């Protein structure tokens, strides 16, 4: 069913139109949609204005994973996610490593990237000479945009002219690197790039060394890149192999060797690497969402980084060297702690305050640790008891809610599966038998 002028309808009219045209029981649809409105009208108005055509709110639970020791400081990490067992697994990994020295992190770079993509119809040597002659003008023409960022210690780091005609006829780019300090910087970068495009075309039109074709530079687009291979953080844990001993790790040497082999499989086998890295992103995305950052950008950049050597591979690595077990993760994270939702969404403010109001660099470290912890928890389960035992026990509540089990039924089901393998079919059969 198509509609004209939908965006101009009131919120109530939008909901009524949806209900009448897309639902078998319009009244139930309207009730459900409005059930998720916030009773605080000002807060609801704030949420309504985050995006267009808002009809309601979509809730994700936000949980916390305590006991994260990072660079000798203890954190409680907020995680917004719907998947069973993620928060529990992260918490368990945090507790495990807190007893073994905790997590260590280091920032490997904070450089962000933007590009002006354009067509030039002429000799590259002339374009290169032109660019070198006028390069400083690009910095001058963006001073009105960059002055505040420069006061905070950021700004434009460098501008390069890149010849990409081996990829596409007449294709060139201005490849620009930025430091955006504590902001993610997307709007700042894109504004600078659009000014670069104006400067480029204006200077070309008046360049006396160019012929008419060469003066006619065609801007294709000006846009930041979410691939940031020089905005990378490393998180790692390490301890003597013998110190890995635990209730479920009676033979730490065998355990460490098996763990390292599991990581190596993800390094060389793409089918495994995708699921391996998805587990890392369970931890990463949950904190990215909780802190109001762009998880789609983080996902895209991380997966591109995983394929940077020509084959999609593991983001994490492990080794045993001189009796020391080391497990680490390198991941690109372009994050912000100021601007965007960080200054608007009340729960984002809570999450950032919970973390001690971190800088963007500190948030990079915290989020990388969450990813490494999640990866450790998954590999620990996979190489010992198997992943389904713990996951399905956490998923049990979802199954019970699906079948609207009452308190008596819940107690009976939980007691029955205390020492049984939880399966969806098994739980359903048990509930049905109870109800007979």
Q: What does this 3D model show about the protein?
A:
The chain is α+β, with helices and mostly antiparallel strands and 436 residues long. It is built from 16 helices and ten strands. It has helices at 11-22, 26-35, 41-48, 86-98, 124-141, 143-151, 186-205, 212-215, 252-268, 270-290, 295-306, 346-354, 360-382, 387-402, 407-416, 424-435, and strands spanning 62-70, 73-80, 104-107, 112-119, 155-163, 171-179, 218-225, 232-240, 316-321, 324-332. The chain has a four-stranded antiparallel sheet. Strands 5-6-4-7 form a four-stranded antiparallel sheet. A two-stranded antiparallel sheet has the order 1-2. A hairpin with a 2-residue loop joins β9 (316-321) and β10. α10 runs antiparallel to α11. The protein is globular. The mean pLDDT is 94.
């Amino acid at each position: 069913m198509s509609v004209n002028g939908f965006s101009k309808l009131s919120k109530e009219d939008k909901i009524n139109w949806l209900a009448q045209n897309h639902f078998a029981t319009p009244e139930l649809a309207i009730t459900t949609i409005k059930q998720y409105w916030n009773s605080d009208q000002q807060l609801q108005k704030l949420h309504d204005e985050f995006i267009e055509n808002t009809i309601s709110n979509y809730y994700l639970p936000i949980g916390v994973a305590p006991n994260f020791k990072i660079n000798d400081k203890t954190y409680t990490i907020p995680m917004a996610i719907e998947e069973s067992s993620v928060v529990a697994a992260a918490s368990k990994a945090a507790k495990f490593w807190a007893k073994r020295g905790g997590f260590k992190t280091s920032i490997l770079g904070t450089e962000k990237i933007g590009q002006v993509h354009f067509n030039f119809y002429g000799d590259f040597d002339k374009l290169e000479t032109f660019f070198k002659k006028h390069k400083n003008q690009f910095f001058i023409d963006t001073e009105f945009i960059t002055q505040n960022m420069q006061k905070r210690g950021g700004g434009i780091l460098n501008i390069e002219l890149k010849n990409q005609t081996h990829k596409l006829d007449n294709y060139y780019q201005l490849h620009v690197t930025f430091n955006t300090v504590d902001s993610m910087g997307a709007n700042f970068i894109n504004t600078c790039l659009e000014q670069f495009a104006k400067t480029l075309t204006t200077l070309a039109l008046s360049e006396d060394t160019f012929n008419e074709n060469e003066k006619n530079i065609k801007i294709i687009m000006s846009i930041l890149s979410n691939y940031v291979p020089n905005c990378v953080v490393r998180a790692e844990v390490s301890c003597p192999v013998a110190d890995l001993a635990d209730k479920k790790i009676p033979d730490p040497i065998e355990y460490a060797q098996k763990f390292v082999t599991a990581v190596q499989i993800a390094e060389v086998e793409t089918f495994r690497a995708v699921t391996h890295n998805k587990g890392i992103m369970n931890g990463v995305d949950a904190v990215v969402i909780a802190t109001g950052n762009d998880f789609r950008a983080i996902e895209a950049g991380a997966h591109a980084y995983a394929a940077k050597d020509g084959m999609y591979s593991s983001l994490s690595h492990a080794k045993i060297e001189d009796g020391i077990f080391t497990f680490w993760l390198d991941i690109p994270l372009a994050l912000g702690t100021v601007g965007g939702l960080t200054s608007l969404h009340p729960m984002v403010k809570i999450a950032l305050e919970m973390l001690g109001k971190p800088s963007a660099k500190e948030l990079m470290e915290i989020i990388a640790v969450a990813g490494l912890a999640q990866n450790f928890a998954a590999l620990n389960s996979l190489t010992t008891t198997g992943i389904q035992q713990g996951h399905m026990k956490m998923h049990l509540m979802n199954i019970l809610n699906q079948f609207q089990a009452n308190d008596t039924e819940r107690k009976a089901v939980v007691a029955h599966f205390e020492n049984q393998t939880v399966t969806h079919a098994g739980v359903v059969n048990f509930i049905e038998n109870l109800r007979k």
